[in-house]
Amino acid sequence: MAPTICPPTTGCGRIGRPTRDTLPLSALLVQFVNGLASASSLFLVAAGLSLIFGVTRIVNFAHGSLYMLGAYIAYSLVARFGATIPGYWLAILLAALAVGVLGVLIEVLVLRRIYPAPELLQLIATFGVVLIVKDATLALWGPEDLLGPRAPGLKGVIEVSGRAFPQYDALLLVVGPAILFGLWWLLKRTRWGMLVRAATENRVLARALGVNSTLLFSSVFFVGALLAGLAGALQLPRESANLSMDLSVIAEAFVVTVVGGLGSIPGAFIASVLIGLVKALCIGLGQVEVGGLAIAFPKLTLVAEFVVMALVLAVKPYGLLGSAPAVPATTSTAEHRALVKPPGRRGLIGAVVALVLAALLPAVGDEYDLVLATDVLILALFAASLQFIMGIGGLASFGHAAYFGLGAYAAALAVKHGVAMEAAVAFAPVAALAGALVFGWFCVRLSGVYLAMLTLAFAQIVWSIAFQWDSVTGGSNGLVGVWPSAWLASKQAYFYFTLAAVGAALVAIAWIACTPFGYALRAGRDSALRAEASGMDVRAHQWAAFALAGTFAGLAGGLYAFSKGSISPDVLAIPRSIDALVMVLLGGLNALAGPLLGAAAFIGLQDWLSRATDYWRAGIGAVILLLVLAFPIGIGGAAQRLLARIGR
Amino acid sequence: MNALWKLSQAVLAVAAISTSSAIAQPIKLGELNSYKTFPAFLEPYKKGMELAVDEINRSGGVLGRPLELITRDDNGNPGDAVRVAEELVAREKVDLLMGTFSSAVGLAVADFAKQRKILFIASEPLSDKIVWENGNRYTFRLRPSTYMQTAMLVPAAAKLGKKRWAIVYPNYEYGTSATAAFKQQMIAMQSSGIEFVEVAVPLGKIDAGPVVQALLDAKPDAIFSSLFATDLAKFVREGELRGLFKDRPVFNLLGGEPEYLDPLKDEAPTGWYVTGYPWSAIATPEHKRFLEAYEAKYKDYPRQGSVVGYSAVMTAAAAIRKARSTDTAKLVAALPGLVVDTPFGKVSFRAIDHQSTMGAYVGRIAVKDGKGVMVDWKYANGADYLPSDDWVRAHRPAD
């Protein structure tokens, strides 16, 4: 007999009102203690990241992978040694050491060769490492989650105000401060620590004073990687070793590092405690009625750490305990930034030839080639808008997908509400401009990695709103049925439409780069102090640049929505921002053709490799690594240099 | 760079060889899925598909032609999925599309199929919208949806007569719709008052300690959870430790699927009510045949994904046989009402909403020989857990 089934969205009756007794203070306190336990492992990862960044100025994206490897290696070692007290802890320690060694290997084999390159290039080199490690882990340990045994001797609970608190969590409560103390001792009372502090404060001066930076960097990487591996290994009793650990921990670790202040270990500790407490509080408060409005606090955990970071950075631009870098505001990469001359006759001829070749594509290629080409064009525009603020403006952005996504959603929502597709595409950049104006105002008050992380925070906040606002944005499913009008329905027609739009936009960006505004931006990038002294309002210029970049990214987003017929929150998510970064850096930060080359390389790689091998992710990672090692100034930069040499 | 050149030469050579070997004009099944994003489910899924293709080809193929499975990775996001679908349709010239895992991707590919007028068999995505709010002529869905599986657990939940339920769910469409479906159905089934406390959890990033503590503080009589994979493992461990599940019945969607149950090993939560797949205990002849063939070929036991992959290919083959053609219009006309043989028995695709009547096994978890298994289970036929035809017609756009 089939039971009465109630239709999902209308229901058969009234939904019971959720009631909640007021949370007693003791419960809140226990939640705080819970938060502290998770904060401990977060602190370990962030401490390693902070240490590495403080000394080497490398944004180590692979830190999450090291954390993941720590968990997997610990799992295997515990399985080998047995879950006895000596065996278990030996396994944990050995796992941490093994990861430390791996960290040194990464530093020696990959990063050492590209130290002279612009800082963010090392970021995508580490991103390449992330991809390789991910597939290697899948190959070595298989796809299933691996749940390790619980820590021997710590399997029980302690009573804390009438509630059960795991003994292992109590251990974690101790480990955090113990590591903090250990690091403090290491940094303040040993010679090595003194060198590390010197290098953190002023790397150039430290080198001038004769510090062997090679050895120092390697040792710092060892300690940082060891901490990450230890954090991963210590998680074994609490969670299974799984393949998404790397990405899920890296964003949080970055946030903690930035909130605490880059290079500051005590700052990382305070930040991890703060964020752990905020998240525990959100969960502990549950659903609360405030003046008739029901706020579900646990839903905020999706983005809580980013909101905290945005608030902290608004008040303290260098994090809680961070300080402005001692190195003056002249970039160390100035030598890589050749004077960007307006494209001469050769450049213009090259552009026209490229345009003609592109226009001929429908004649030679099949429909899929057109789809790929449309994708390349759209992402080239997206990358070009990022290259505009990064290369010319000197402002790194980790959250550029926010404007791409705002444009895409604006276009899709407009069409869903009856607006014509053409008007919707025109509306996309306007919406993105609005967002860029608002976010940019806050972002240009910061500098360096802090600015980049604040852009990421804003992108995540927009993402979480799109992800959860089911009624308007379609929630995590997004919106479908966003197809172009009839006259653009064929792949060929849409390709030409995109070619025209993107071509015009790229020309506009190139033109703006060569106006006095563009030169003013470069002045602000190369020496903000001098620019201000000569009467230029650097901040206003940067804000305008941010707005412009956002506008172009929004146009790309609008075109993207109609090329796919649907959008979902991942147009706003972190991987999208990272893709843009990779494309810009692959193509070259200062080459005008860089974005196009980078987008073509990236998409071409993905397309070709995913058909060629099962382990295509490792393939992409390896190719990215090779390209970064071979072309430290990007493909476009190398081509430019080659052309310059030929022309001489 | 030399190595790169050699590699590209090799790839081109292989491509040339493979395109020239069309001897008996194979029927091409285009399959796209998030193989790298959800390997635990989709590696067995791929094995299931390949087993089915092998079986069919060994017995002569379909309409005298062999089946050829062309798989692509959609990278877990709708944009890449649409691009890959485009490649399958335009370049590989597949006869139909199948696959996808997450609901966002499934919905995007379903819409693409509608636009491109090609058949799409959504094998795994669970979102109710695929056949209702966003249903279309060209999309058919195999797996029982979120609504259906929740409905399978509701009778046992209502029988307990508990008044205060805590609901913990991953904070995205799957979790929210499971929660909504559970709430509405419980209210209908239980005559006396019932109240709910909800805790949302970021997908894959549960803060298990605070969540379990919050649930304990809410003092619920019973718990309904739609957590799975990594979140489930953390939740189980932390919950057992803090005594959350003591004297408290727990219901968990998909908890009995081997992909999510096996990693827990001997910590599998005993007594939980779950939907799943008790592969070692099903004695029906069709399942036994499937189990033997799978174990013989792969030296491993099947997972839920294996059954889905196998059944999806069987569906495609059955549709082509009934239509006597690979023409999309004929396939789309053949599928409604089509009956397919799957390891779970005979499954049919409803004409009214293109949802298959594939069901799931409902039972409780116990630990045997250090592994979690399902006990006291029975097969819940999908056909019994769907809303009324009037409701469906009101909520599905006209074809």
Task: Tell me what you see in this structure.
The complex is a heterodimer of chains A (648) and B (399). Chain A has helices at 25-56, 63-81, 85-109, 119-141, 167-189, 191-201, 203-208, 213-234, 245-260, 265-285, 304-315, 345-364, 367-392, 401-416, 421-443, 448-468, 470-473, 491-513, 516-526, 528-533, 538-564, 574-587, 594-612, 616-630, 634-647; strands at 157-160, 163-166, 287-290, 293-296, 479-480, 566-567. A two-stranded antiparallel sheet of chain A has the order 1-2. A two-stranded antiparallel ribbon of chain A has the order 3-4. Chain A is globular. Chain A has 25 helices and six strands. In chain A, 69% of the residues lie in helices and 3% in strands. With 648 residues, chain A is mostly helical. In chain A, helix 2 (63-81) crosses helix 9 (245-260), helix 13 crosses helix 22 and helix 15 (421-443) runs antiparallel to helix 21. Chain B has 399 residues and is of the alpha/beta class. Chain B is 44% helix and 20% strand. Chain B is built from 13 helices and 14 strands. In chain B, a hairpin with a 2-residue loop joins strand 11 (339-342) and strand 12. In chain B, helix 2 (39-58) runs parallel beside helix 11, helix 7 (208-218) packs across helix 8 (229-242) and helix 11 (304-323) crosses helix 12 (328-334). Chain B is globular. At the A-B interface, helix 1, strand 2, helix 10, helix 13 and strand 6 of A face helix 2, helix 3, helix 4, helix 5 and helix 6 of B.
Give a short synopsis of this structure.
The complex is a heterodimer of chains A (648) and B (399). With 648 residues, chain A is mainly alpha-helical.
Largest sheet of chain A, order of strands side by side?
1-2
* Largest β-sheet summary of chain A: 2 strands, antiparallel
Main beta-sheet annotation of chain B: 7 strands, mixed
Question: Which structural category fits the helices and strands of chain A?
Answer: mainly alpha
User: What proportion strand of chain B?
Assistant: 15-25%
Specify the overall morphology of chain B: globular
